[in-house]
Amino acid sequence: MDPKVAKADAKHEKLHSQKRKKDSSDRKTGNEIFDKITLETLYKLANQGYIDILNGAISTGKEANVLTGITDDEKFVAVKIYRIATSDFKKMDYYLKGDPRFNIKTKNKRKIIYSWVTKEFKNLTRLESAGVNVPHPITSSNNVLLIEFIGDEDGNPAQPAKNQPPKDPEDFFNKLLVNLKLFVNEAKLVHGDLSNYNILNKDEEPVIIDVSQSVVLDNPISKELLERDINTLVREYTKLGVKTSFEEVWEYVAPVF
User: Are the C-beta atoms of 92 and 116 separated by less than 8 Å?
Assistant: First the structure.
């Protein structure tokens, strides 16, 4: 057998069967996300050197699961796998419309998912270039997105601010607003679903995640989405004791529509 083929087969087997458990809190990976095309995509990414094995789940949801991946050189990456069977395609279509980067004229669910993953990768690239604190995008293929792992050196993922409230909410909120201003004014994007569920608390620094639905400012729904994002943040951080208001945040963050 060709040594390269043998190595690829070994990597393939390890990717599917081996799991490194750091502690008993690691959650099991649901078999339902690993359909044939997803497995082939992960196989290809493994052969390209992006991942070596998959570890436990970071988060699970109706549309996507995020797993911990480990590279050949023992570094952690986050592997986001969108689920074809349970995704909300009406919502995806809603956010894809009005984006000049995408001209989706298909009802094929798999193609819509692939466009959605590409959209998230492009949004992360654009946000990172604008100086927004987001995970570094590594690569994407089909329904799989690889991004920077946000967590500690032992593979423990950073928690959403909803689960791990900041020790100094006002300082954290101010840092978040700086990022939000860059998000809107430099990257020219609006998140569209911003809340403490989609903001990681990494050593008391906010890291914004889940930007697949984020829209460009030219999108007709961008103002409505920004108003919703700001209202959500004001409500959440007021509960944490921060003195703020919609008007104050809007004046600081919002561009001229």
Answer: yes
